[in-house]
Amino acid sequence: EAREAYVARNPASLAAHVEAAASLPGGNTRTVLFHGPFPLLMARGKGCRLWDADGHGYVDLLGEYTAGLYGHSHPVIRAALDRALDRGWNMGGHGAMEARLARLVCARFPSVELVRFTNSGTEANLMAIATAVAATGRRKVMVFDGAYHGGVLYFGGGGSTVNVPHDWVVAPYNDAAGAAALIEEHAEDLACVLVEPMLGSGGCIPAEPTFLQALRDAADRAGAVLVFDEVMTSRMSAGGQQARLGIAPDMTTLGKYIGGGMSFGAFGGKRALMELYDPRRPDALPHAGTFNNNVLTMHAGVAGLEEVFTAEAADRLFNRGEALRARLDAAAAERGAPVRWTGLGSLMAPHFVRGPVRRPADVADDDPRLRELLFLDMLGRGFYLAKRGMVALSLEVGAAERDGFAAAFADWLDARGRLLA
Ligand code: PMP
Predict the structure, then answer these.
(1) Is 58 a catalytic residue?
(2) CA distance 202 to 349
(3) Which distant-in-sequence residues (6+ apart) come within 8 Å of 355 by Cβ?
(4) How many degrees, rounded to 5, is the angle at CA 100 between CA 98 and CA 106?
(5) So what's the architecture of 75-308 in CATH?
């Protein structure tokens, strides 16, 4: 019934989907955006709002899976892009903004002494792994169940057939003793331990500080490179989640908002590791990429960090998210509804379970149909979430929109209580 209402409401999106399917598999070039019966065609965005091809307006709570931190058409980002466009954008040379963006990143993340840019978080993680393998001369790479480090680096539900071939060791998330034991077991062959400080795609499940500290200690004992994938969590403070926890990895990967909403990724860390890429060295490791220093990203990234996403703005956003998640959780608790919102700061996700959520196994029985129902019903109420229910607040989502969403969620619990029970 929710699907029927959706089909009836969105004829222009349906037509666009049918046409797109002629030349894109399933009409899609980005798997995460597909959902049944067909996804919306987005026509326009402004501030925290989006409009689809059929003219419906939404409060954008997806925030481009966290890359949309600045909201839509932010005037500061737009001005930076205009400046870049005025000067040309395919110059095949160094531009003024890349060193400036690198300086900003290194200043914010003290564990990142040197950094290199990529075009995506996926590439950043591929490069971090390659760096660790080259630096240690070892082959094994530890990742965690439920992790997502990119389309070819996915470890939910037993992994993916398109994953890059590495000698993977998949360890249990948020199990300090179990993971430390595995690190010790593979110590001689282990190049790196790659971990998200919060499982993002895996359901916004934060790492416990003791877990990350145990990884830090065990990696040190094993001589393995500890890599924090902060592609999603870098927004938790100016210096990411590592600054909030006071745990310094050897390498960090970044992406999403740091490029001001343009294509972006970065990997960086200890000087001794990153110097392997210094092209002045006769034995330098190669890291090419036509768009690594693309002018639009560099300009937008600098403007965003210098003028908009200050340390104070980061802390404010974090607190707004914590308050919203508490309200959503309270709405479910007051009604005895089996829904738990997990997350950190401005990122949160619902789980249709009753018990506490610490590990991917705790949400394994989560009903995907309820998730889809929440998604479709919220579209009907004017809120655009990730299809899996995740919310990533942008800086533009105001108090009125947060109040509105909390009220809409409470109303949804009442309306759908029978299905949830
Ligand atoms: N790591 C994490 C934690 C992510 O959430 C993502 C993207 N959602 C990536 C890596 C991959 O980034 P990209 O989509 O830019 O390749």
Answers:
(1) no
(2) 10
(3) 340, 362
(4) 100
(5) 3-Layer(aba) Sandwich (3.40)
270 as an active site residue: the answer is: no
Contact between 205 and 357 under an 8 Å Cβ cutoff? The reply is yes
User: What is this structure's pTM?
Assistant: 0.98
Q: How far is the CA of 253 from the centre of ligand 1 (A)?
A: 10
* Residue 26 burial (CB count, 10 A): 12
- Residues 357-370: pLDDT tens digits? 999 999 998 888 99
Query: Which amino acid, one-letter code, is at 188?
Result: E
Give me the mean pLDDT over the 338-365 stretch: 96
Catalytic (active site) residue 154: no
Residue listed under structure tokens 């360890």: 171
Checking phi first, is residue 408 left (phi over 0); if not, alpha (psi -120 to 50) or beta?
alpha
- Give the rounded distance of the alpha carbon of 302 from its chain centre: 20
Please tell me the distance from the alpha carbon of residue 241 to that of residue 184, in angstroms, as a whole number: 25
Q: Is the CB of 255 under 6 A from ligand 1?
A: yes
How confident is the model over 320-346, as a mean pLDDT? 97
On the question of pLDDT at 420 being above 90, the answer is no
Q: Domain limits of the chain?
A: 2-69+311-420, 75-308
Q: Provide ipTM, 2 decimals.
A: 0.99
What is the domain class of 2-69+311-420 according to CATH?
alpha beta
Q: What is the pLDDT of residue 421?
A: 81
CA 202 to ligand 1 centroid distance, Å:
12
Please give the Cα distance from 109 to 126 (Å, whole number): 20
Output the pLDDT for position 184: 98
pLDDT confidence band for 1 (50 / 70 / 90)? confident
Max distance between CA atoms of the chain, in angstroms, equals 68
